[in-house]
Amino acid sequence: MFTDVTLLKETWSAGIWSIIPPIIAIVLALITKEVVFSLILGILSGTVIFTILDPLDTGTGFVGFFDTLVQLMRDKLGENSSMIIFLCLLGILVALVTRAGGSKAYGEWAAKKLKTKRSASLSASALGVLIFIDDYFNCLTVGTVMKPVTDKFKLSREKLAYIIDATAAPVCIIAPISSWAAAVMSYYPETTGQSGMTAFLSSIPMNLYAILTLVMVFWMCIRKKSDYGPMAKAELRADTTGDIGAINNTEAEEQMDRMTKGDSKGLVSDLVIPIVVLILLSVLSMLYVGGYWDGSGMSLFDAFGNTDAGYALALSAFGTLLFTFLYYMLRRVLTFKEFFGCINSGVSSMVPACVILTLAWSISGICRDYLHTGRFVANVVETSGIPVQLLAPIIFLIACFLSFATGTAWGTFGILLPIVIDITTQAAPELTVTCMAATLAGSVFGDHCSPISDTTILSSTGAACNHLAHVGTQIPYAVTVASCCFLGYFVAGFTADLGFGLSTVVTLAVSLVLLIAALLFLPKVWGSDRSFTI
User: Cα(315)–Cα(288) distance, rounded to whole angstroms?
Assistant: First the structure.
């Protein structure tokens, strides 16, 4: 029996039992199509396992089950309270922009400029790439702005949700100025002899999943008849029946009515200016919270690495609301009463996402902090004695599994990065950056497509798409990219002796060729004519 709590936290794991909760949550989500129910059962199962194993031997038994459950959810909600505040403030901002007529004005402008489904899809993708500060902000902003435009061209909500999701986490993980970069740098061990920012910048060219996902999303937007699998079914349904897959049947019609009726004073600038202000304030807030202006002489990159992204984003959202209040009052596009009337509706629109996020954080917490799922899986890898050439592809697979099972990229690379870097610096120094990139790439895979991932949830929320429909249509695309990445990391392992630069070029070239070959082949064997029947 463990008597030292610190020793217990550093060594204990529930072993193979630790993978039961995420498996229950994911399988039930896919079977029942009810995310909240599935997450709750996953959390309950994890709490039961922890209570039965009771590593501290507290003897609390049945009472301990409830104590652990409530304490877990309270702690996770408290840890992420800044992000909840940010989401609520962002919901208010979205409601204000819509009420002021900014979204309508943008829709009318875009309707004149964009003439095809291809141009609408590309515009959504480009907007997703431009909003690289944070994936939460990305998901909600792109969805809100682009829904009226893509609805006009009968782009299915499943396809819009995919575009949003594929340009959220993949962009943030390769953008040096983002909340994701800050998280990666904060997890990077200080004992390696180089800064977290240097290591992060070095890993970008080898982050195959992020790069190939961005290539794929633009490919799918540009080429006609490029969809396959369930996505092809969703697109054919939208084209032939007009059912774009909105959460409710009247939503698309109501959006179009708002675009074409009324005497709104709104201009495109009423949408663009608040968003630009939010981006600028997000950058400045991250620097401020990171200590850039506290007189300590901290560098720009160090400040980003030292920041608290959730708090900084909440701070910037509040500042943006203050600016928007003054701007709209001076423009007289909203009355005082109308402005504050948007607060309730804005917060209400975020309640479902906040509930699901709280549950997703909770199941991630039970796996990471109580059952130590990551420690169990990482231990298996560390003690396996595999050839160094196979380290990168295996690490990639482990990161994929962990992030998909727990729904968190940050938690996954937070667990794996120190272990992976420790292993590679001793066993294969030439593969340290490659294996770091493989860890980040695999972590993004799960965050991109796991049913319990916060980014996946927010992408379906932003697109107003059924969550499980989004997951089901996106997974074949994500798996296609992940398969090419897996083979690419094999190439990276066996070309490491050529030097990192040449190895990177060869790896990227092979991975891109594999992806393009798959994207040319799959629509022919798994296209709309093979996946949909009217």
Answer: 10
| CA 403 to each of CA 398, 415, 467: distance values in angstroms, whole numbers, following the listed order | 9, 11, 18
Residue 153 in tokens: 């061209």
**CA 332 to chain CA mean position, Å:** 37
Reference 160, options 247, 91, 100; nearest CA is 247
Token pair 């992940």 is found at 482
Can you tell me the distance from the alpha carbon of 484 to that of 500, in angstroms, rounded to the nearest whole number? 20
DSSP state of 367: I
Dist. CA 476–CA 459, nearest whole Å: 17
DSSP 242: -
What amino acid occupies position 413?
A: F
Q: What is the pLDDT of residues 21-73, one digit of tens each?
A: 878 877 776 677 676 787 888 888 888 888 887 666 554 566 667 777 888 88
Instruction: Retrieve residue 137's tokens.
Output: 């902000």
What's the pTM value of the predicted model, to 2 decimals?
Answer: 0.73
Under 8 Å between Cβ of 434 and 493: yes
Q: Is 465 strand, coil or helix? A: strand
* pLDDT higher than 80, residue 295: no
Other Cβ atoms within 10 Å of 376 Cβ, number: 17
Q: Outline where 261-308 has alpha helix (H).
A: 269-289, 300-306
SS3 246: strand
Query: 250: how many CB neighbours lie within 10 A of its CB?
Result: 9
Q: Is 238 helix (H, G, I), strand (E, B) or coil?
A: helix
Measured CA to CA, the distance from residue 55 to residue 393 in angstroms comes to 34
Neighbours of 274 (CB within 10 A): 22
Q: For residues 223 and 523, is the Cβ–Cβ distance under 8 A?
A: no
Residue 453 φ/ψ, nearest 5 degrees: -75, 140
Tell me how far apart the alpha carbons of residues 372 and 382 are, in angstroms, rounded to a whole number: 15
pLDDT over 80 (residue 223): yes
User: Taken in order 498, 504, 435, 519, is the CA torsion positive or negative?
Assistant: negative
Distance CA 45, CA 518 (A): 39
DSSP SS3 for 56: coil
Under 8 Å between Cβ of 22 and 36? no
Nearest to 233 by CA among 519, 32, 469: 469
pLDDT at 214: 96
Mean pLDDT across 232-261: 68
Give the closest residue to 185 by CA, choosing from 414, 439, 442: 414
- Asked whether the CA dihedral 252, 257, 260, 263 is positive or negative, the reply is negative
Strand spans (E) along 429-482: none
